[in-house]
Amino acid sequence: MPQDESAAWAAVMRLARAERPDGQPATAIRPLFAADPDRFAQFSWAADGLLLDLSKTALTKPVLAALLDLAEARDLTGRRDAMAAGASVNVTEGRAALHMALRAPADAGFRVGDEDASAEVHAVLARMREFAAAIGDGRLRGATGEGFTDVLNIGIGGSDLGPAMVARALWTPGSPLRAHYLGNVDAHAWEAIRPGLDPRRTLVLVASKTFTTQETMTNAGLVRGWLAEALGEAQVGGHLAALSTNLEATRAFGIAPDRVFPFRDWVGGRFSLWSAIGLSLAVSLGWDAFARLLAGARAMDRHFLAAPLEANLPVLMALAEVWHVDGLGLGARAVLPYDERLARLPAHLQQVEMESLGKQVTLDGAPVAHRTGPVVFGEPGTNAQHSFMQLLHQGTTPVPADIILVANPDHPHADSHRKLLANGLAQSAALMRGKTPGEVRAEMQAAGAPEAEIARLLPHRVFPGDRPTTTLLLPRLDAFTLGQLVALYENKVACLGILWGINAFDQWGVELGKQLTGPILRALEGGATSAQDSSTMGLLGAIGRLQAGG
Ligand code: F6P
Fold first, then answer.
1. In the prediction, which pLDDT does 550 show?
2. Pick the catalytic residue: 215, 321, 355, 490?
3. Is 329 left (phi over 0), alpha (psi -120 to 50) or beta?
């Protein structure tokens, strides 16, 4: 038992710097497999059918014990429970972070102060369900009497990435409606979507927690104009709905109260796909799929809230991240879903993780004593193998990777799926094992390479190995397992906020760019240019000349 938090940190850092009893550095993984044939069983855990394998990291029993001591010293259990009890864990904004309530049953009893959060959530869910049913069975139709075939979600960040990721993962040609996501203020995005949409058959959801976001309000204006032009101003309302916490602004935008689906400020944008922000999913995938998504996330929450820390998947993933980031100094992590349907998962996790954990001060404003959130990036396998994986195998910056595998596909092409799985498993094995100079030499000799050629190429063909991967295995990809998976990452982020002592639920770092956009926009509109740095002034001038010339 550590006496205090700093002793717990020191114990972790000592293990990271010291040679292990096996004489290996703390980064070595391959020897751990040689020494313990049972390593997989020792370092893999499951929750409701979702398997987490941390055996291909350098975690050892003493390291894990030290990390669990740290979790105890940080009162991870108490702080987790306070979050679930609706405490104002988002201290800079004075808000709870109660997205767990969004996927819990009505009688789960989540509260924020005097407010019955569960009751409110279920009142909105009931309206969403009825709305989705009415769209699906044609009781709600477009202005010309035609049924809706397409839903367009206009939103950005958390009001876009989560739903877009889920729709990409779960939509099939048999789904009730097609879903489209418009985020970027770059109108090329709208121009790319527009030709595929018929205004008479398109339902438009304006998704914005604040209903003030520049990109979303600009796009909402464009799309509203498109509807008005095709259908007449009076008919626009029947094609619009809003998903927001800002009911005044939705009214000002002209959206009737019965077409506004609210949520509360204790739902952070990046954790909001389970709220009214998920309406595009309920409409396009059907209610049952949306309900299964919530059920999967709820199953993960129950596990997170109840399982002992030493068998708790989000906690273990967070501890492994602390080991990688702080112990071993690894400042990035790749997310590699071996499932094309999860193509947008890395983008969603970038926001969930980097907006939450990209912080430099603790809850009370003191500089953090440790490194915090790593850079997160990724691509589906096997595509990633043919682009950036070179650096993961042989670069000078080791990058831990999450490899997400799905045992059973939803297509009939067994051969393709076997190859996909083989590639995913091979990547994690290759990153862990590497290839020694001796192995390269033996391989080249066996192939009959001359000695001079071996000497010339050998260093290029050596793989250092000992590069950590975390493998997540899903039985299949469906609404339930996707809910589990996303909630696993969300809860991991909450744990990391606790372990690092930072606020994982605010995002002040996005404000400065927003502030500076104002005066620059006014300059681009032809107004006076307030003093900017010479680079910005120079670029404004160059843009002006190019626009005049073009
Ligand atoms: O600028 C960042 C951010 O505030 C994110 O946190 C949020 O998900 C996104 O913008 C969109 O915000 P809103 O839903 O209020 O339009």
1. 61
2. 355
3. left
Residue 333 per-residue DSSP state: E
Question: What's the fold here for domain 3-73+307-433+467-500?
Answer: Rossmann fold (3.40.50)
What CATH fold (topology level) applies to the domain 105-292? Rossmann fold (3.40.50)
Based on the residue annotation, tell me whether 359 is a catalytic residue of this protein: no
Give tens-digit pLDDT for 388-413: 999 999 999 999 999 999 999 999 99
| Distance in Å from the first CA to the final CA of the chain | 70
Task: Please determine whether the domains at 3-73+307-433+467-500 and 105-292 fall in the same fold group of CATH.
Answer: yes
| Segments making up each domain of the chain, as ranges | 3-73+307-433+467-500, 105-292, 512-547
Question: Does position 321 have pLDDT exceeding 60, yes or no?
Answer: yes
pTM above 0.85, yes or no: yes
301, 487 contact by CB (below 8 A): yes
CB distance 189 to 183 below 8 Å = yes
For ligand 1, pick from 99, 154, 156, 273 the residue to mutate: most ligand atoms within 8 Å of CB.
156
Element housing 173 (H / E): none
Amino acid code (one letter) for 43:
F
Q: Is the CB of 269 under 6 A from ligand 1?
A: yes
Burial of 405: CB neighbours in 10 Å, binned 0-12, 13-18, 19+:
buried
